[in-house]
Design a protein that fits this description.
The structure is a homotetramer of 153-residue chains.
Chain A: H1 13-23, H2 25-30, E1 33-38, E2 41-47, H3 61-77, E3 84-95, E4 103-113, E5 117-128, E6 131-146
Antiparallel strand pairs in A: 1-2, 2-4, 3-6, 4-5, 5-6
Chain lengths: 153, 153, 153, 153
């Protein structure tokens, strides 16, 4: 699918995403960083850490999912109006190759920005020296949540 | 689907699962415990921790996915012969309710034990006082990997 | 997951499901029948037909998906209030075994009846003589659609 | 994900795909046509037909799934060696918009050509006059099946 250009509904979209990311304590715990915020597209980075691996020494599939879920969720949040927060509804993940390398780039993109539901695709790219390879593909649904004051950004 | 009873192909299935779980460093990092191992069914437990939350204070969907992916993977491993290791191929996760509570019970079950591919369902149950509620449903494919000596259990 | 009992919000749920099924022209074309309607659970039946097969002589995976998607959609519709119609948001299907036999039983069940989104599981059981075997597992999200008069049941 | 160029392992890949498509009787029944075969990418076309609709007059989601599943399966078959047939393992479908229009273009692409498992993405584009819009996104796993003489192409 050709990536689309989206118009943000809230011009402070980037600062909202950055502030929300800072409140995601799981991101701090696993060491993920917010790299890039554009309307409808967000990139995170996760340096490889041995304490996040599964039994074969690869990053655990769930940890990789954690960063690409956040990337997709923030891609959706970047298109929200001021009154809406975002929740993950569901996602599907294909693990294409072992998640090994110096770091993972997790990119989330909105492909369908509905008023209530936003569909996103995500990919995780392992970076090892000069080599980049896609290790994970995600297809996800995010939901815009309105009128629930306990759920902010 | 009615849960089935399976015959393990390797009588040391429980010790294999326990030894492999101990090598999953991500499980230690997030504080998950292995609760129960039966042929084709495994239960893990994740106590709630604030440093694993997303921006609204719920456990991050990816962290919940991490434990239920491991539960499904070990449900598959419990049915492997001695020569086979297990890798996650793909999974689909529906987030039914916010993951809050004192702890999460993550249960993985094999529903189709093919020779190469095993299909599993998983669920995560939030425990809060006397109340249990299903917060996550997974449908996953695991792969038996043979003849790759670098991939053990 | 233990199947739950649900209270219908509209006591005419069964006649609504039956009337809507009769309008699904694709169901007539492939020869599917509505077998059973309960609150939150619907069963359809598809007799095997050679003109619905793929290249190996099995029922095409998409045709099997068609009946189990309708079963899940009608399981959701059976729990709707009078003002709401249902649309499929997304589904994930695992093809566990070839869809061969005299007929397929497709069963859809609601596992989470949210106000806007309903999560369902579906299974397709191949019937061959006295033997029944699960050939397909689905995990799906359905959406309650309100205030769109062009979308009725 | 940037589409890749793949080298076919069997130079007669196009005639194999075309011959197999002709044996998919479900394709004839719903009126689908094979439009384009390239190594790792296949396009089918489905003219709109009222006898394939659901209750609101849109093409049934399962019918749309049927064509894009075949497109993905044939994208995988186009990369197979002579000894391998293809089966669908699983797929996830997001329904982005109602499937209405004069015809649907269903495009399947391999994104990871493993020896046993091939991961594909698919999309369905509704064509109405001069307008094209993506109505469905698929992420699928296909399996290369060897040594089973009853399963040919």
């Amino acid at each position: 699918m050709t990536p689309k250009k989206f118009e943000p509904r809230d011009e402070s979209y980037e600062s909202r995403v950055r502030a929300s990311f800072d409140r995601q304590r799981a991101m701090h715990t696993i060491g993920a960083r917010l790299v890039r915020v554009e309307p409808g597209e967000v990139e995170l980075e996760l340096p490889f850490r041995e304490d996040l691996t599964q039994q074969h020494g690869f990053l655990h599939a769930g940890i990789v999912t954690t960063v690409v879920d956040s990337a997709c969720g923030y891609a959706a949040l970047s298109l929200m109006d001021r009154e809406s927060a975002v929740l993950s509804v569901e996602y599907k993940v294909n693990l294409l190759a072992p998640a090994i390398g110096e770091r993972m780039r997790a990119i989330g993109r909105v492909i369908k920005p509905g008023r209530t539901l936003l569909v996103c695709t995500g990919e995780v790219i392992a970076v090892a020296g000069d080599t980049e390879s896609v290790v994970t593909a995600m297809q996800a649904t995010m939901m815009a949540v309105r009128g629930r004051p306990e759920l902010v950004d």
